Amino acid sequence: MKTEQLGPYTLSWPEGVFPLGGDALALGEFATVRPRWRVCDLGTGSGVLLLLLARRAEGLSLTGVELDPLSARTARSNLERNGLAGEILPLPAGAFDLVVSNPPYFSLGSGGSGGPTRSEEHCALEELCAAAARLVRNGGRFALCHRPERLTDVVCTLR
Questions:
Q1: pTM
Q2: Most buried one in 48, 67, 130, 152, CB count within 10 A?
Q3: What would the pLDDT profile of 62-121 be if each residue is shown by its tens digit?
Q4: Rounded to an integer, what is the distance from CA 119 to the centroid of its chain?
Q5: DSSP state letter for 149
């Protein structure tokens, strides 16, 4: 089990859960967040983005979406251990002020893989953006971190 201190919160993750990385740290600082917003993290992994955002604004309603059962258990555990209320489950449309994601970067067959957590094997960019569009309220925000060489793909998909 690895552990990292994130301000007032402690993040832990076992082998098999995507590790803490610089992109998650950057996105956790970049995304605009306001007190009492409903926040959703698509592909939450260990729940790191939920912890990073919770330290920046009070009274957030925290929700994560995660396909991998081990990662979902880890995210729930990280929220509970840090005294934060939150849930990891399917969600209603238009329910969030902010949706964030640190998605898989590599399209299938691109040669730049690293396993299912780094490639779009289980969640393509189009599926991720469609889920974000469904979850965010009118006038809400979607923030993600992606590779520069995929910028055209991201912009075209978001269009």
A1: 0.83
A2: 48
A3: 999 998 899 999 999 999 999 999 999 876 789 999 999 998 888 877 766 666 777 788
A4: 15
A5: G
**Cα 138 to Cα 5: distance, rounded to the nearest angstrom:** 35
Strand partners, 106: 119
Retrieve residue 116's tokens. Answer: 């299912």
Tokens of residue 7, six digits: 């301000």
131: nearest Cα among 157, 150, 110, 149: 157
Contacts of 34 (CB under 8 A, 6+ apart): 57, 97
Q: What DSSP letter does each residue of 73-112 carry, written as one string?
A: HHHHHHHHHTT--EEES---TT-EEEEEE----B-TTSS-
For 46-71, how does the pLDDT look when each residue is reduced to its tens digit (9 = 90+)? 999 999 999 999 999 999 999 889 99
H-helix or E-strand spanning residue 48: helix 48-54
Which pLDDT score is estimated for 97? 97
Contact 97, 132 (CB under 8 A): no
Rg (CA), the chain: 15
Q: What are phi and psi of 94, to 5 degrees?
A: 65, 25
Do 64 and 47 touch, CB atoms closer than 8 A?
A: yes
Burial class (CB in 10 A: 0-12, 13-18, 19+), 156: exposed
